[in-house]
């Protein structure tokens, strides 16, 4: 006997890529982060953090926040800082500010496209960064 599938059987999840949704489901069933390739981790943890915040999954959010602290560098520091501000990740925000407290890191980050996005998205954070003392 073949079951019929109707539109009611389909759950549409907008604004989330399939690998992120699969990772979210993995976490729901295992209470752990899925294995992923090293080159995908940084971006995946960013998307997974946003999904965790969207669905109020605080433990997953904290796990992603912790992992992202390991990936902060000149290239992505402003992108991660923007993410931290938008999703209220105080530990991640603090880690970004710590990284950017180095004047060389701050200068390089301010020259990036990510800084332009940060300036538009989170103007108060831009002001905080501009007021950081140069050593």
Automatic annotation (TrEMBL):
Residues 7-70 form the BTB domain. It holds the Pfam family BACK_BPM_SPOP. Transmembrane segments: none annotated. Pathway: Protein modification; protein ubiquitination. Gene3D superfamilies: 1.25.40.420, Potassium Channel Kv1.1, Chain A. InterPro entries: BACK_BPM_SPOP, BPM1-6, BTB/POZ_dom, SKP1/BTB/POZ_sf. Residues 78-130 form the BPM/SPOP BACK domain. One of its GO terms (biological process) is protein ubiquitination. Belongs to the Tdpoz family. This is BTB domain-containing protein. It comes from Miscanthus lutarioriparius.
């Amino acid at each position: 006997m073949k079951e019929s599938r109707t539109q009611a059987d389909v759950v549409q999840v907008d604004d989330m890529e399939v690998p992120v949704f699969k990772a979210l489901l993995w976490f729901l069933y295992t209470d752990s982060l899925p294995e992923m390739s090293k080159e995908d981790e940084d971006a995946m943890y960013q998307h997974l953090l946003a999904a965790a915040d969207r669905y109020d999954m605080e433990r997953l959010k904290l796990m992603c926040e912790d992992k992202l602290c390991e990936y902060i560098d000149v290239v992505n520091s402003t992108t991660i800082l923007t993410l931290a501000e938008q999703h209220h990740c105080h530990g991640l925000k603090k880690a970004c500010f710590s990284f950017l407290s180095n004047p060389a890191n701050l200068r390089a980050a301010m020259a990036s496209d990510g800084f332009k996005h940060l300036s538009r998205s989170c103007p108060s954070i831009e002001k905080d960064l501009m007021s950081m003392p140069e050593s």
